[in-house]
Amino acid sequence: MTKVLNITTRSRVEFIDVTDRIEQVVKEAKVKTGVCWIFAPHTTAAVAINEGADPSVRRDIINWLEEAIPRTGNYQHLEGNSPAHIKASLLGSSRAVIIENGDLHLGTWQSIYFCEFDGPRRRKLIVKILEG
Amino acid sequence: MTKVLNITTRSRVEFIDVTDRIEQVVKEAKVKTGVCWIFAPHTTAAVAINEGADPSVRRDIINWLEEAIPRTGNYQHLEGNSPAHIKASLLGSSRAVIIENGDLHLGTWQSIYFCEFDGPRRRKLIVKILEG
Amino acid sequence: MTKVLNITTRSRVEFIDVTDRIEQVVKEAKVKTGVCWIFAPHTTAAVAINEGADPSVRRDIINWLEEAIPRTGNYQHLEGNSPAHIKASLLGSSRAVIIENGDLHLGTWQSIYFCEFDGPRRRKLIVKILEG
Question: Residues of C near A (CB-CB distance < 8 A)?
């Protein structure tokens, strides 16, 4: 089962919690056990899993990335968005989550984030489920 | 097949080699070919694959992370463990390993690590196998 | 289906575009839908997905990694290649790509890279496909 979600980002750098939307896809698929991939088909966006309860955690992650990979520097790529490509490569374009009892088997504090690094833009997020 | 392993960490930051325990799960599952996921259901821990032979390699990885993401800084999250969340996001909460001939298809020098960034704690590690 | 590709790297640090070779494996497997893993069985190499159109993007990613993880430093591992182990751990040893209509379901600008961090060497790259 493959499903494509549309994501509209509103800032240059932004982590959007997509856990509820992924959960809905898993429930509609009626798969009891398996593995679910969340894949960003972009080179300046990524997928991450981290704390969803306190929004200051994602702000601290973003702030660290912004400091470690500064917006201006000795970059060769003429579009000027090399820092976004570097951040996307570090976090990675996809994450896997296990499915148990027809639901995402996440830890208590885990949320799934679509990570925008070169927004605002209209983006896609692909959800793929394998049963087993 | 899904199996939950218990991990007890003994330091704040620590990489624990879990290769033998994952291999045992794969052998008990009697799966000849497939893919195995190792998933940490935590927001301040991760899973990594790297050299297991010389323990100085994992110390060098840990030391780099500790320098790049210092314990004290301009963090907003009040629990004080933002550096652990950032490290966990960078390494990622899961790794996939291919299964061939009923065993993990790792390279000669590869070991699988549970990466603790906010210990000591009692942790879980979820192992999921898809046959195919 | 599991297939092992041989890769010959020519520099110490180098990103080699392997998208065409992975696509050929997927086509030969005649799998219509599923998931494909690209796994590097090495501790000083990794797999990444990022822009393939403009080679300056991969040069900017490599330059950032070389600056963030310098070649010389206070490393304990006596082989002297700890920076390569650290880079490989950050990017990760594998990537998953979704298969749709018998082909890799990548974004318009995405290419798959074998990332060499301690070359030149002869390397392996394992491709595993699960149908579903």
Answer: 33-35, 48-51, 54, 56-57, 59-61, 63-64, 68, 90-92, 95-98, 100, 105-110, 130, 132
Of C40, A113, A96, the C-alpha closest to B39 is: A96
B37 with A96: Cβ contact below 8 A: yes
**Superfamily of the domain at B2-131:** YjbQ-like (2.60.120.460)
**Strands A122-131 and B110-116, sheet pairing:** unpaired
User: What Rg, from alpha-carbon coordinates, does chain B have?
Assistant: 15
| Rounded (10°) angle between helices A82-91 and C55-68 | 70
Q: Are C37 and B96 in contact (CB < 8 Å)?
A: yes
Q: Tell me: the pLDDT tens digits for A24-46?
A: 999 999 999 999 999 999 999 99
B91 touches B115 (CB < 8 A): yes
Sequence-distant (6+) residues with CB within 8 A of C30 are C102
Task: Tell me the per-residue pLDDT of B32-48, one tens digit each, with 9 for 90 and over.
Answer: 999 999 999 999 999 99
ipTM of the complex: 0.96
C-alpha torsion B44→A55→A59→C96, nearest 10: 60
Least Cα distance to B28 among B97, B80, B103 occurs for: B103
Tokens of residue C85, six digits: 């182990």
Say which of B37, B76, B131 has its CB closest to residue A59. Answer: B76
pTM as predicted: 0.97
Which sequence spans correspond to the domains of chain A? Answer: 2-131
Residue from A101, A104, A94 nearest A24 by CA: A104
pLDDT means over runs of 10, chain C (132 residues):
96 98 98 98 98 95 97 90 97 98 97 98 98 96
| Angstrom distance (rounded) from CA B89 to CA B42 | 10
Q: H helices of chain B, where?
A: 19-29, 55-68, 82-91
